[in-house]
């Protein structure tokens, strides 16, 4: 039913099968309404839902699941229009109710109580039917909106060269590099995700847009590396087996625009590899990104490992990513030095902390 990818342990796998079997038993029409592909995706969704429920229980924060409940309802309604909105919502409500039953069977009493609370809220959200999707007008309310729309149009037409030329002309015309990253690349990628969620583009088109943007970003490196340096270094990576590394790569590039040197580690690094790299390079700033909420506990553990195993006397640690939008107070609770809404805000914070003065260059 979705394209989620998670690390599934034996406990989650067993629990998922129980929930899947019960829902098929109680809603036998699904046996006929769902083909093999949809049944496989339904199982993947159940596994992801359980991972996320476990995270919400571990962190004692229902908001982590609430956002997902709204998102998955929006996604499936648009992806399964042949079944109808009422039917999809009904299936989700039944799913959460079965999850509540299973929570009582598989969890300790206190954890089961929290799980039921989380799932009660998911049922309420699903029944209410309030869409979390941005309105079309909101998607355009950003700086460089016209340039972003032109760039997105090129991508959706699979015009890689045209998109690259558009960016090159904008830069030659005086558009700041930071604007290109924040208000064109990042905004266009957000729109691509929105279009995919609405079912208006296919996953292959989404992947094409991402790959093309990564390639165009790479073409900008000669411009970026020619800018003056400030003698500071940021080391950045995503936490867990994230496939969403575009944001942290953009972060590194924006820091390079502002004269920092970057060490970009990418995704899928084990925690000990992250601490080893920090110990080796002794960066001024470490940035950890968590996009998928079920990796929040791992993000907490990586931060704790850095605090325990690395000399951070001259190093600051920033954490960010979409997952923290659901629980913005977590970074402070965990002892991170800062979290920021975007790369430019983080650069400005780092400038202040490290006493960097620069001309008014963006």
Structure, described:
The chain folds into 3 domains: 10-128, Phycocyanins (Globin-like), CATH 1.10.490.20; 136-222, Orthogonal Bundle (Methyltransferase, Methionine Synthase (B12-binding Domains), Chain A, domain 1); 228-353, Rossmann fold (3-Layer(aba) Sandwich). It has a 4-stranded parallel β-sheet, with helices on both faces. Helices cover 63% and strands 7% of the residues. Mean pLDDT is 88; it is low at 1-7 and 132-140. The chain is an alpha/beta fold. α1 (10-26) crosses α3 (36-58) and α4 packs across α6 (109-128). The chain starts with 9 loop residues before the first helix and ends in a 9-residue tail after the last helix. The protein is globular.
Quickly list its features.
globular; Globin-like; single chain; 4 strands; 4-stranded parallel beta sheet; disordered N terminus; 3 domains; alpha/beta; Rossmann fold; Methyltransferase, Methionine Synthase (B12-binding Domains), Chain A, domain 1; 362 residues
List the helices and strands and how they pair.
Layout (H helix, E strand, L loop, with lengths): L9 H17 L3 H4 L2 H23 L4 H17 L5 H22 L2 H20 L7 H4 L5 H12 L3 H13 L4 H21 L5 H17 L1 H5 L7 E7 L6 H12 L3 E9 L1 H11 L3 E5 L6 H14 L6 E5 L9 H5 L8 H11 L9
Parallel strand pairs: 1-2, 1-3, 3-4
Helix pairs in contact: 1-3, 1-5, 3-4, 3-6, 4-5, 4-6, 5-6, 8-9, 8-10, 9-11, 10-11, 10-13, 14-15
């Amino acid at each position: 039913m979705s394209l989620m990818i998670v690390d599934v342990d034996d406990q989650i796998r067993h629990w998922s099968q129980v929930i899947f079997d019960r829902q098929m038993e109680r809603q036998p029409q699904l046996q006929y309404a769902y083909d093999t592909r949809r049944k496989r995706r339904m199982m993947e969704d159940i596994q992801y839902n359980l991972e996320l429920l476990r995270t919400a229980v571990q962190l004692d924060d229902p908001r982590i699941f609430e956002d997902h409940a709204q998102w998955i309802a929006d996604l499936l309604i648009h992806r399964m229009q042949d079944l109808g909105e009422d039917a999809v919502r009904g299936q989700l409500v039944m799913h959460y109710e079965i999850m509540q039953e299973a929570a009582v069977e598989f969890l300790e009493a206190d954890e089961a109580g929290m799980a039921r609370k989380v799932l009660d809220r998911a049922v309420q959200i699903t029944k209410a039917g309030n869409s979390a999707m941005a309105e079309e007008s909101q998607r355009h309310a950003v700086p460089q909106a016209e340039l972003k729309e032109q760039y997105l149009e090129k991508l959706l037409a699979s015009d890689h060269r045209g998109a690259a030329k558009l960016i090159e002309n904008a830069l030659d015309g005086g558009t700041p590099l930071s604007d290109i990253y924040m208000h064109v690349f990042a905004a266009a990628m957000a729109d691509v995700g929105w279009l995919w969620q609405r079912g208006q583009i296919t996953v292959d088109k989404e992947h094409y847009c991402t790959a093309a943007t990564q390639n165009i970003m790479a073409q900008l490196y000669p411009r970026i590396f020619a800018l003056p340096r400030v003698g500071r270094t940021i080391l950045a990576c995503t936490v867990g087996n994230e496939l969403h590394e575009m944001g942290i790569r953009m972060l590194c590039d924006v820091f390079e625009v502002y004269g920092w040197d970057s060490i970009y580690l990418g995704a899928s690094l084990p925690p000990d590899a992250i601490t080893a790299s920090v110990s080796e390079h002794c960066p001024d700033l470490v940035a950890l990104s968590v996009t998928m909420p079920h990796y929040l506990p791992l993000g907490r553990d990586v931060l704790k490992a850095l605090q325990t195993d690395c000399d951070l006397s001259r190093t600051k640690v920033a954490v960010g990513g979409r997952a923290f939008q659901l629980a913005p107070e977590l970074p402070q609770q965990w002892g991170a030095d800062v979290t920021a809404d975007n790369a430019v805000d983080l650069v400005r914070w780092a400038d202040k902390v490290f006493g960097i003065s620069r001309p008014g260059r963006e």
